[in-house]
Each structure stands twice: as C-alpha cells, then as structure tokens.
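Figure S4 source data
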Amino acid sequence: MRRLLLSLTILLLTPSIHAQDIHLYLTEHELPNLVNCLPAPPDTIGEAFTHDIMRYMWGKQQRLDPVRLAEAKRDAIWDLDTLAAIYSEPFGLQIGRETTPEIYRLFMNGISTIEQIRIRPKAHYFRMRPYARFHESSIFPQDDAWLSTDGSYPSGHTIRAWSAALILSEVNPAAAEALFRRAVESGENRVIAGCHWQSDVDASASAACIGYAALQACPDYQAQAQRARAEFRKVSGLPALEPEFVCDFADWTPESEKVTGSTQGFAMYGNYAFVLHDKGRLCIFDMKKKKMVANYLLEGNTSHCNNACFGVEKASRKSPFPLLYIASCGGENCCYVTDVTLQGSRIVQKIFYTGTDYAGTIDWCLDAENGYIYTYGGRNGDYKLLKKFRLPRLADSDANGEVHLTDADVLDVTRIDKGINIWQGSIVRGRFAFLPDGYEPHELFLHVVDLEQKKIALSRNITDLVDEPEGICLKDGYAYVVFNTNDGPRHSRLWRFRL
C-alpha cells in the first residue's frame, strides 16, 4: 500500500503527457483488423459464456479484499502516466519524461499505437459489459452510464497492460517475467472491476501481441526502441555487450605446435592471453605481437580446466604473473592455484569446497580486485548458484597446501532458478557476474547477473556467433570470451563485448 501511495504521489507531481506529444508509429487502419483475426466473443449460451459468468462471480468475491480492490481501481485509471508508474515497479526503473525520456517516449507512443487496434472490434461487436447485463454496478458506479456506450470486447485496459509488458520487456528482457505477471493481474483486475468478461481479457492479450508484431516492421519504432535500450543500459549501469571479433588463435599458432583438447578457460594479463584446453594444456599468446609465445601441459593438472581467473597475489617476487586460479570442473573438483610462466607451471595451492546445494561439478571464479572467490554451478537446465567466499591467501594453506571451504565460510549466495541453461565460464566484478551459457544445439547467451538484486540483469543472445562460449575475462572496458569450435583445438576464437 505504501508503494501505491508513493506512486500516486509521484503521478500527481509529474506532468501528464498531452495528445500533441504522442507520435503514432502506425494509424488505426495500418494495424491488422481484429474482426478478421480473432474469434467473435462467446454467445450468451454455451460453455464459454458460462465460464465468463463464473469468472464474473469470482471477480465480485475478489472485491472483498481491500488490497486487490485498490489495485483494480488503480488499474482502471485511463492515463498513460499512471500506467508508466504502475509498470515502473516490475520494470525495475522509474519511467518518466525527465528521468528516462527515450524509454518514456517509446512507452507512450508504442502503447498509443497498439491500443488503436481495439476500435474496430469494439464497434463491430458492441458487446454488453458484465455489470450492465446483470443490472448491477461496477466498482465505479458513477461511470457506469457512459461506459455502457462503449463495447466490452476486447478490453482496452488489458491491451494497454500487455502492450506495456511487451514493449518494456524488449528494453529490459530480465524483467519479462515480472512484467507479464503484472499484465495478467491487470487483466484480472478488469474482471474484478465488473467492466469486462474473462473472454474480453483473453482476447486482449492476443490483440496486444498482434499490434506489437505489426510494430516490428516499423523503422521509426525500431529506431526508438534502440535508443530506449541504450538509455536503459546507461541509466541502470548495464553494459551494451556489442560483439566484436578479435581473432582465431589458429592464425597465430605455428604449424609445428601441437594443440590438444577442447578450448575451455581463458584469462588475460598485460599483453598476454592464456587459453586453457581440456586435459591441462595451456597456450599463451602475445596479443600485441599476435603470436604464440608458449604451449605446454600444466604440471599436475589434467582436468577439464573449465575456467581461469588471475588473482592479485604472486607466488614469489620472481613470478612474472599473478596466481592463476583454474577450475578443474571434474576430477578433484577443486580450484588449482597455479604459478604460471612462459616456460611452465606449478600448483602452489588447492582450494576445495565441502558444502551443500550443488549438483555435480562446480566452477570457480574470482572478483580479484575486491578479494573474493566464488563457486558456480547447479544443475544443467535448472537452477544455478553463485557462492561468495573470501579469497584465501597462500599463507592460509594447510600442511598439504590445501584450503577447505565449508558452508560456514559462505558470505553470500545468489540463486538463479531460471534463465541460465548450461554454465560455462564465469567472472565477477563488483556487483555483477558475467556468465557465458550454452552449447549446440541450445541457444547461446552472455548473461550479466546482479548479485545484489539476485537476478539476471541482462542476457545477450549470441547464438549467431555459432561456436560454444567458454572462458571469460574482463579487460580495458571489454568482456573477452573465448569460443570452442568444431574446427579443432587450434581454432580457439576470441570475441569481445563492449562494457
């Protein structure tokens, strides 16, 4: 209720949009004619209309809940600024003329365009509203008379609600579930209000989708949507994740060099790129000179080497690089803390986690700048977990050179129940985790997970890049992702995504 009052206060203090400010992307007659698309509303006899009556009775019962009644009354306000205030909450960002002008413009113009699709079917069918058929009152008895002059099929309010969810989920896909859940509630609220039959509401969801589909072919809409997405990334602090091809490491690898094992972990330090392969092969490249400078098998590590991150501590003063943390992802299921050089490597510490909740193997990744290490895993096609620990130092090792973390050492847990199918590489920087996802024939993604809000903040579909995303690192304003290919181990392809 406090949120409701706050939103209404904001609404009263914010100037409403004027008709002259609206730009329609399409006219009413450029939109599909729903009379030719959707079935006619149910006749007053039969099973479908019986269901409408039962839902009307259900809606009257819901009015006894003061919270739901207040929500239904708020959803009934025919004002786009009110709608913007309502959908700002599931969207995760306040939508306003001053604060988010590009999103606001897309929202107002897009909804105003789509909602025209209701005009022809309303006039054609001129369906009697529920409260009028039963000679009762809606939740707004003062409006019943003039509302009866407008047909109930389909519901204009519900078309607006679904249009809002469709448009805003295009700007912020991570909020899609919350937005569509709110759209469904908005449709229910029209039944609770007594102003619409359930079949009106059901048809309105389809109507909004039809109108939204028509917008996809409109250049003006697409240009505005692109500006709105850019604004969202800027305001929310999310990266653009625009891909740029860097290289195929096969082009920098001499024919005489033997490369084995599928491409897996990836890390960068200075001018050097470190490409790890299954069974413990490490290839090191000079990114500036564009050539391979080292190729060897890791000492004591024949694991999958699924992920790799540099820390900040060095094994000794003579070490050319900080410690490299390599996730075994199988075998000992530990993190191999490795001192690497251009000549070879040695394991200087092993980190284990003995705890709960994971199914199968786990990965390890770092937020090196802030001194944390994370375990990452779950179950493919199901939940994923990121558990946060303080990053052990070499001095924390026991007599066997090992560190054993337990549930008592967990500082924080982020659980993602949906949205990440198959985990690959991982790295954390502050509040965000960057997580490649998928392999053929599944879709491929690069996810950004907000560890404070415990949700996916951004998902970039990278299926068009074809190859399997693997290791990831962050450097110089980019997320670098190495891809495993079907062309053989030599062909590790590197892409970068602008942050």
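Figure S5 source data
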Amino acid sequence: MSNKRPLRVAVTAAALIIATLLFVYPFWWMLVNSLNTAAEVFGPPALLPKSWRFENYAEIFRVQPFARHILNTLLVAGVGTIGNVLVSALSGYAFARLRFPGRGFLYVLLLTALMMPIEVIIVPLFFQMRGWGLSDSLYPLMLIPIFGAQGAFSAFMFRQFFLTVPMELEEAARLDGLSYLGTFRHIMLPIAKPVASSAAILAFLATWNTYLEPLVFTTSVQQYTLPLSLSNFNDSYGEPQWHLQMAATALSIIPIMVVYMIFQEKVRDAMVNSGVKG
C-alpha cells in the first residue's frame, strides 16, 4: 500500500500540472502576441514574442480613449457594486423579517428576475432608459446591477442569511429602543458581512465583464466600457488589430487580477455563500 501512494501522488501532480498548463497557455499566448506585430499574431506559435513591441501598449491609448474607458468601467463597477449591496441588503431584510401585504407575491416577482436573461428584457429596458433621458450615458449601466437580475440574486442571498439569524437578537434590540432601520444598521448588517462581501464580489465581477448592456445603451466612444472597448480596435478597413486587442485585454484584466490576489479567500467564500440556505 505504501508503494502505491508515491505513484498516486506523482500521477496526481502530473495531471494537475498538465491541467494548469492547459489553462495558462491561452493567457500566455495573449501576453506574447500583445508584444508582436499584427502579422506575427497568426504566425507559428512561439513561447516568446518575436518583435517585443512594447509600443503596442502605448498605441492603444492613441487609437481610442482607452484610459477613459478604464475609468468608465471602474465607475460603473464601483457604483453598481455599492448600490447592489445596499439595496439588496435592505430588500433581503424586509423579505426576511417584515410582515406586509403582498410580501409573498412580491418575493415571487423578485425571483422571476433571476429567471429572466438580460437578452429578453434589454429592448424594454432600452426604451425605458431612453424615456428617462438616460440613453448614451453610464447611468443605465449602474442601475441594472442594482435593480436587475444581479440585484435580485444578492437580495435572495441576504434574505436566506437573515432567516438564519435568531429572533432573540432583534427582540433585544427592540427592548433597547431600536427601530427596524436601527436594528438593520446596528445588528443585522454587521453580522451579514460575509454575505455582503460575497454579493459585492459577484456583482463587481459581473458588472466589470458585462458586454451587451454597454453595447445597447452607449453610442459615443467616450461612454464605452472595457468589454466594448476591446472590440473597437480596428484599422481603417474595419479589420481587427489583434495585437492591440491583446495588449488592451492584458491591461484590462489587471484590476481583476489585483482584486483576486487581495481577496482570493473572499472570492472563494463568495462562491460558497452564493448557495447559502435558509
């Protein structure tokens, strides 16, 4: 039995190394070609760049306002994430603890938002935002993560968590003279930090990577976010400039990698807490 264990460990390690290389190679290929010319991108595969064109990274800021697109994405993801957590925490607490007419029906309506792909409601949303005078702006991109399917999912997570909190905590808060809002602020929200961090991470990742909403709600280049910006590196004939797209993509994933490296444990917990049970 002892002789089989080293062999099993070696086979497992080899399998993990091969799987890691399979996942890492596309990312490495992107980095290599971000330093090549457009013609070299479709040349024979190589592990190192052929031209080492670091000027590709400077050129992406000359071709279009890429710095503005990064700021737009940070603004949309930041506001959308904060709003998502605050609104969903309040609605989750209301559905878990408050008794009001139509609560069950409204909760069912909330859950239907989880079943609605954005492709189904994007046209009505477009006309609604245009009626509010919000077309070709970043406001729809901030509102959708708060009140759309991602917000409904976060509210569901908070409700399921608040249902597990003992009623004695709220009763003690009532004896101390706290209102519902005071109980939420001083008692419920602090103990819901794990769920809040999970909702924030999931909302940030979803908002950062969204493509369809910016495509529909923005028309001017100044309002683009990164996913839309990455598909806009074309030459005068409309052909993609792949080497610039690779460089821009490499820069665009840096914030996500930084967030993951800093909060990797919370990202893992986010995936676990997303299935929290009541």
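The mean pLDDT is 86. Residues 4-54 form one domain.
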